[in-house]
Structure formats: C-alpha cells, structure tokens
Amino acid sequence: xxxxxxxxxxxxxxxxxxxxxxxxxxxxxxxxxxxxxxxxxxxxxxxxxxxxxxxxxxxxxxxxxxxxxxxxxxxxxxxxxxxxxxxxxxxxxxxxxxxxxxxxxxxxxxxxxxx
Amino acid sequence: xxxxxxxxxxxxxxxxxxxxxxxxxxxxxxxxxxxxxxxxxxxxxxxxxxxxxxxxxxxxxxxxxxxxxxxxxxxxxxxxxxxxxxxxxxxxxxxxxxxxxxxxxxxxxxxxx
Lengths: 115, 113
Fold this sequence. Notes:
The structure holds 2 protein chains of 2 kinds. Chain A is mainly β. Chain A has no helices and 12 strands. In chain A, strands 2, 5, 6, 10, 11 and 12 form a 6-stranded mixed beta sheet that branches. The model of chain A has no long low-confidence stretch (mean pLDDT 95). Chain B has strands at 5-7, 10-13, 19-24, 31-38, 42-50, 53-57, 64-68, 74-78, 87-94, 103-104, 108-112. In chain B, strands 2, 4, 5, 6, 9, 10 and 11 form a 7-stranded mixed beta sheet that branches. In chain B, strands 1-3-8-7 form a 4-stranded antiparallel beta sheet, with no helix packed on it. Chain B is globular and about 40 Å long.
C-alpha cells in the first residue's frame, strides 16, 4: 500500500519570504500523480499544484513550485513571496495512475505566515 | 462553473441513528469520491462512484455506504452512528479519466453525541 509522509507538523514563514514544505512517499508503482492541496480555516480543500510522475520537469503555478525527486520519492512544495492568505494546512497526496481516484494523504503541515 | 456542493453543511446526530449526506459534483464530472477527515486519523478515502457504480472502496465498515444517481449526484449513508464517526466528510468530483484532478466540496461537519 502507498503511504505519504509529511514530517513537518508546523512551519512558520515571514511575509514575502520563501518556505519549503516536505513530503515523501512510498510506492512500488512507476506511474502516479502527486498533489499539494491547501485547506484554510474554512475547511475547503483547494488544489495548489499537481505533478505527473512521468514528467521530469517540476510543476510550477505562479508562486508555487515543486521539487520532484522520483528516485528519492520526494515531493516538496516551495512557496515564494509568502502572503498572509497562504496560511493554511497543506496536504501532500498520492494517486495511482491505474487504480482509480483514491487519494492517499499525508498528515498535513500547518503553515503560519507572520506579518 | 459552480463548484462541488455538499448538503447539509452541519449535522448533529445521536449514537445509533443513521445519516445521509449529499454531494453534487461539478457539471460534467462523473466521478465522485468521499473522504473522512478526523484529527486522529487524518484524511481517509471512503469510496468512489462512477456511472452509478462503486469503483473503489476504502477500509471502512459496512455501516458506511454510498450510491450515485444518473445525474452523477452522490449520497453517502452511515448507519448505527458511533461517537467515532464525528468528522468532516468531504466529497470530491472529477472527470472519469484517471488523469484528471479531483476538486473538493466544502464538506459536511457531522457531530455524533
């Protein structure tokens, strides 16, 4: 079974600074998808970024980028120019490319942004 | 496009009762998945429905069931509620293609007393 580990329960960043959230996963599959979701206090889960395992190029979405290391099974999220609105719980998630829409989530990292 | 909607948003039940939660996916989405979120267990996959058929199932007891209607709307039912069923229940929808991303609804907060 696949597992996802987020080793940082909580992180803090100063507004306008850069922060990196860590995620590692375990799988025997070669084809899969990885996601970062953000859950603000409103509890609405919002997609931040996604990465296809077959793509070597790291995904980017505006101020958000990932460092995908397939061999190391690592998938970190970098948030540049942090804003107060980035404060939330961030979840790393894994989905098989062949076994349906089941997302396996990590435990989450609370990100606090200081003004 | 309207997002995923879930009703009701909040619910209080007592032990032994049953509850039905509803999820309306984004227009055109035909896959609906359900997740349970608790402080202790985190986010756990319950099941996925596509074309009115259960396509995937997580490790939950038979008290948890679901169904999907021809318009892709989905319901989940929990019978004989236990205190441990108190959780945020999230629904997510996507196109049936496995390459597609899931988009989540706002959730239903269930409190079992």
